[in-house]
Amino acid sequence: MASSSSALTCSRRYHVFPSFHGPDVRSKFLSHLHYYFARKGITVFKDEEIERGQTIGPKLVQAIRESRVSIVVLSEKYASSSWCLDELVEILRCKEALGQIVMTLFYDVDPSHVRKQSGDFGCAFEKTCHGKTDKDKQRWSKALTYVAKIAGEHSLNWGDEGEMIKKIAADVSKKLNLTLSRDFEGMVGMEAHLRELETLLCLEHDDEVKMIGIWGPAGIGKTTIARALFSQLSSHFLLSCFMGNLKGSCKSIMGVDDYDSKLCLQSQLLCKILKHKDMRVHHLRSIKEWLQDQKVLIILDDVDDIEKLEALAKEPSWFGSGSRIIVTTQDNKILKAHGILDIYHVDFPSEEEALEIFCLSAFKQTSPHDGFEELAKKVAKLCDNLPLGLCVVGSSLRGETKVEWGLQSHELETSLDRKIEDVLRVGYDKLSKKHQSVFLHIACFFNNEDVDHVTSMLADSNLDIRNGLKILASKSLLHISTDGKIEMHYLLKKLGRQEVIEQSHEPGKRQFLVEAQDIFNVLANETGTGSVLGISFDMSKTGDLVIRGRAFERMCNLQFLRVFMGHSHSNANVRLSTTEDMKHLPRLRLLRWDSYPGALFPPTFRTECLIELRMASSKLEKLWGGIQPLANLKKVNLNFSYKLKEIPNLSKATNLETMTLVQCTSLVEFPSYILDLPNLETLRMWGCKELRVVPLNINSASPAESITSYCSGLRNFPDISTNIKNLYEGRVEIKKFREMKFYCEPWSRDVGGRDHKRRSLRELNLSNRYIEKIPSYVRYSRQLHTLIIKNCGKLVSVEGLPPSLRYLHVDSCVSLERVTLPRVFQDPIKELIFHNCLKLDAESRRAIIHHKVARYVCLPGDKFPAEFTHKDTGNSIIIPWETFFSESSRFKACLLLSPINDTDYEQLHITCYQRSHGDVLFNKISYLHVLSDEPPLILTEHVFIFRGGLIGRQKRCSEGDESMSEILFEFHCWSMYKIIACGVRILRDEDENRITEMDDFSSGSNSSDNKDVDDDDEGAYESRSRSCWSWLMKLCW
């Protein structure tokens, strides 16, 4: 018998093998039974593709052996088929040898007739036996007699066949233990996770073994997702096992060596999957010996060591065809090292999903209770969308009063909940000391900084910073964004800062000081020590402070000092001052001190390690005297230092890359040697109104950007190198005629070979010029993407623009009549802005409004273009949902804006909110436009036209969604305008591919379609588009 069992050993591909006589049951009964099996996730063998013969073939025998349950449907003609009888014999053989479950259904036949082979059933049996051997007849008769004794359903006892079929399916499910779990129903976002994972698993490919990974930070929900997946899929596998919490180990528990700990892990897995209570293994290939022919589902949860993974699932050959091995981990490197390439990264939920997760824990419903809306949003934001934090904090607040909510939210701002800390700390504790140090540097000082910047700051440390950042990213302890910024989750940042606080009860003995009150006390009491590496001091969170002479003296290892005014406005007028005897600053690598109160740095200030110097809005008159060692210095920012009279000697700053002197209004002279520094890339001197002298020749090979605009006192102007990319001419009054002639002449007409100097320009400001048309060299500036023209009172036409242009702003050109735009642009033009251009002719207005690639348009006007069929006064409009709307649909909006000139707004900020019936926000589009130092005085009404996607990423609407019966468009404007009316047009597909001329600009004219194409669409989730003044935002880096 043992040999027989061994011969029959095989994997189980099917839950059920049905044995039946087709003509009796296939068309009705069997099809309905298959339907209910499918609903319960029960896999049934189907024999439609097998050619029937006199005897059952090897495929059918294999299918019987690979099934967990056989259902024998005994009908009146069942015994008329030798095929059915042979199936029955094989089924009973598997029952005996493999323990296969056999169930019976007597379909319109008496069980006694089957047992005795009598009646019509017996007659059919006798016909089949005719011509067969006595041996065949005896084994068939024995099988029929045996199977008739197995209790089963009798169709004659059921008045409703449908109810009988439901019961059979339920009985099979019960025997297979396949009752699908409801534990994960209603979990926010779970369906989307499971769909993505099923795609990765490729369950339809049953001829391969597949391993996939689930990767994400601690507390993101990897284990919950894996358990839900296991609940959904385990019924499809004969053998399945969920190995939870593998971050612990047998070695740590039992004190055994590595080999024994691996044996322990293998023993645990085999005991679980084979359902043995005490199964011992003696070598590390035991899993392969037991499972290599079995189709298994194994989930290895929270794997933190590659050796554990290799001990449990070293290679696919350990498991039978169709097996699926799923590994969850916080460490991406483990998956890659094991050759797992199909990895599902669990991302953070959206803000809406996070609030829903929080509310389910706090209120047991998907939305806040009345009166708790703002509190719920605040607490959810403090959890920074981490599901673990949302659930733990939500549960702790359930049933509490608003007062308690306020207290706990304040506590959450200052400390971590113990349950959250325990989960997050695991990843930190497993880091090496060096990588823990990198973690603390990021958590306390360099979060949201550029990788290159942080690498420079820590280059001379022993931290191996680039590799350390990669390690932390692979372990989901931080994220490197696509634009190279380091992003650490809020709760992980708090964990790091809490770890630093626990270094000592005395703040002055900790590595980093970030709590404002601790810093206040350390500086006021002069209790700092050599342990302090960095200070980040938000002055807005304390009272007035006087820093005395020895405040920094004992902090001999201080490398990073940041003093700034944060976002808190409660102490906006706080004063920080230094005494004259403050004579010591350590050898800093980073010094940022906003509003520095001194006129000069302490004489003992050491600069040899300095990499970045940021002294915005300081009272400095000069920095230091003489020549200082500055070989490491890369960035200098002295913006808005109104008292600065001279630039320090920077001749030794050979690695200087960026220097900004915005609004240094007392600065008179700019040293010539600075432009010869070999690595200088960016120089900004905007608003230096007392600046009189700059070098006559800017021929350095290094500068990529030079801005000297709004320097109204400039007496000479340099010869411009071909390397200069950005030039802003506004309000420059050059006093020396010789230099003025050299400078202006090439810009007013083409002058032989000089014109090539202008062709590399990217941004050009032609403001305050006495020109009637655009200079001809502009047409040939093939890299020009931004053109600003302000206060050119004689300008009559704008034409001859290069196809590279993306931003065109024309402001207060009161004589402007004609605008001719290129028919084709290299890239879609972003902005067409014409403030206060009141004389534009009708043809130019039509060209501007309907230009096929313009995303944002603004020009004078007090009526809607006729294409906007939905119009209303005020800042909102409701339109009905149309049948042709879809997720890919787009809209075009027009706002009528009225000027508000008694405002101090320095930006045009327009936001469009789209809400469904029930006030559910499903899309948001924002447009931010930063104005220059003097916002234009708006003279009359303007129209602002823009477009976007109809459905944002926050919501994807399904057909029949009742909440989408109508759409509310709500517009808000923060600027020198107010919205007096709005119009919306939903664009059909054909609108995106057709241009139709508009007869006039009257709302009373007939509606027509227009070309509306934006090949560079950044999506409805766009929160900010680049303005042609966006360079002004970057002046104060």
What structural class is derived from the secondary structure elements? Answer: alpha/beta
Shape: globular
Number of beta strands: 40
Distance between the termini: 82 Å
Helix content: 25-40%
**Number of helix segments?**
28
Q: Describe the sheet with the most strands.
A: 10 strands, mixed
State the fourth-level CATH superfamily of the domain at 14-176: Toll/interleukin-1 receptor homology (TIR) domain
User: In CATH terms, what is the architecture of the domain at 14-176?
Assistant: 3-Layer(aba) Sandwich
Q: What would you report as the Rg, rounded to the nearest angstrom?
A: 38 Å
Which residue ranges are poorly predicted, with pLDDT under 50 across at least 5 consecutive positions?
Answer: 1-8, 252-256, 568-572, 699-709, 721-757, 953-960, 995-1037
- Describe the strand arrangement of the main beta sheet, using strand numbers: 25-26-27-29-31-32-38-35-40-33
Q: At the first level of CATH, what is the class of the domain at 14-176?
A: Alpha Beta
Written description of the protein model:
This protein has 1037 residues and is an alpha/beta fold. Among the domains are: 14-176, Rossmann fold, CATH 3.40.50.10140; 190-248 and 258-345, Rossmann fold (3-Layer(aba) Sandwich), CATH 3.40.50; 351-414, Helicase, Ruva Protein, domain 3, CATH 1.10.8; 422-479, no CATH class; 760-860, no CATH class; 863-953 and 964-992, Jelly Rolls. Helices cover 29% and strands 19% of the residues. It contains 28 helices and 40 strands. The strands form 9 sheets. A 10-stranded mixed sheet has the order 25-26-27-29-31-32-38-35-40-33, covered by helices on one side. Strands 12-13-15-17-18-19-20-21-23 form a 9-stranded parallel sheet. A 5-stranded parallel sheet has the order 6-7-8-5-9, sandwiched between helices. It is globular and about 120 Å long. The relative contact order is 0.04. The model is unreliable at 1-8, 252-256, 568-572, 699-709, 721-757, 953-960 and 995-1037 (pLDDT under 50). Residues 12-176 form the TIR domain. It catalyses: NAD(+) + H2O = ADP-D-ribose + nicotinamide + H(+). Its EC number is 3.2.2.6. One of its GO terms (biological process) is defense response. Residues 997-1021 are annotated as: Disordered.
